[in-house]
Amino acid sequence: HPTPVSVLGLGGMGTELARALIAKGHPVTVWNRTSARTDQLVELGAARASDPAEAISASPVVIACLLDHQSVRDTFDDHTEHLRGKTLVNLTTTVPGQARELAAWAACHAFDVLDGGIMAVPPMIGGPDAFLLYSGPREAFDRVEPVLAAFGEARYLDADPGRAALYDIALLTGMYGAVAGIIQALALVRAEGQPSAEVAPLLSRWLRGVAAAVGVYAEQIDSRDYAKGTVANLAMQTTGFGHLLDFAESQGVSAELLAPLAELMRRRVAEGHGHEEVTGIVEFLLSKGSTS
Ligand code: NDP
């Protein structure tokens, strides 16, 4: 069923969201602080709203894709009366506390908020690899899910409004950790005069195997049993990892990205956990606030 949808915020991501909705046949109204950014969507058939109030009034489903939490408050704070009875889907990246604050504010003004985390870059929107995480009232999600499907797989997590933001942050954190390793690997190869492109498919394949271990790591971290299912003990890994970093330094490649990880591994071995998995270093991370 075509559902009128308003999209507020037409940066790189908001523009793709609006485009995906138009492609699915939904009547779309758009607003952006800098109005020139609405032009290409109007050409595709969207209606242009001249201010946030007009955009919110046009549709029962209102999507926000702005820079940050503050820009969401700046855009919506003065227009809560227009949101009454509607569903605001906030696809702006925020932290859990901000998502919960928005939910409490929505409850005061009699509208629903779904908080979403977009696990995609703009060109992936509407394609098979995009998935989006949502939290907030289940009934609101069920009501608007047919609209949200335009963006990619819509995955409902929990009634806790902060859950989608938490998992979004967790996934991005995992990504940046992987980015550090990937850049270090390609730097080593370039330092030896080899083209990165040659090792790239091998590295991709290897990382897919590493990704398969996430479930085992999670079980160890949940159970606090860091020896459970160990296939490569920490003492051995710490020795091997140290050699990798020494090699980097000997090639004139800085080891600064990964050195902190090596240091935590050494400390964990020194404290008698060399027979366990690397996951035990989580204890240092979680106790940091209380010990330092
Ligand atoms: P852009 O920088 O391209 O766009 C930012 C948007 O926010 C613009 O529409 C801008 O308006 C608007 N904006 C900024 N400040 C205000 C304000 N105070 N009041 C009103 N509008 C404001 O960012 P993206 O579109 O890439 O990202 C938007 C959101 O999507 C972010 O939260 C981001 O984390 C999230 N996201 C982005 C991904 C990506 O790969 N791009 C991936 C996953 C999530 P104006 O045009 O007037 O400057």
Shape: elongated
What would CATH call the architecture of the largest domain?
3-Layer(aba) Sandwich
Helical residue percent band:
40-55%
| Largest sheet descriptor | 8 strands, mixed
Secondary-structure-based class equals alpha/beta
CATH topology of the largest domain: Rossmann fold
Bound ions, cofactors and other small molecules, one mention each: NADPH dihydro-nicotinamide-adenine-dinucleotide phosphate
Q: What is the arithmetic mean of pLDDT?
A: 96
Poorly predicted ranges:
none
Strand order of the largest sheet: 3-2-1-4-5-6-7-8
Q: How many domains comprise the coordinates?
A: 2
Question: What is the highest CATH level, the class of the largest domain?
Answer: Alpha Beta
Compressed to H and E, one letter per element, the order equals EHEHEHEHHEHEEHEHHHHHH
Distance between the termini: 56 Å
- Integer-rounded radius of gyration: 23 Å
Protein architecture, described:
The chain has 292 residues and is an alpha/beta fold. The protein has two domains: 5-158, Rossmann fold, CATH 3.40.50; 167-291, N-(1-d-carboxylethyl)-l-norvaline Dehydrogenase, domain 2. It is 53% helix and 13% strand. The chain has helices at 12-23, 39-43, 52-57, 69-76, 80-83, 96-108, 138-148, 163-191, 196-211, 214-223, 234-250, 259-273, 282-291, and strands at 5-8, 28-31, 47-48, 61-64, 87-90, 112-119, 131-135, 153-158. The chain has an eight-stranded mixed sheet with strand order 3-2-1-4-5-6-7-8, with helices on both faces. Strand 5, helix 6 and strand 6 (112-119) form a beta-alpha-beta unit. Helix 8 (163-191) packs antiparallel against helix 9 and helix 11 (234-250) runs antiparallel to helix 12 (259-273). The protein is elongated, with a radius of gyration of 23 Å. The model has no long low-confidence stretch (mean pLDDT 96). Bound molecules: NADPH dihydro-nicotinamide-adenine-dinucleotide phosphate. Residues 9-14, 32-34, 37, 65-68, 71, 74-75, 92-93, 118, 121-122 line the site of NADPH dihydro-nicotinamide-adenine-dinucleotide phosphate. This is 3-hydroxyisobutyrate dehydrogenase.
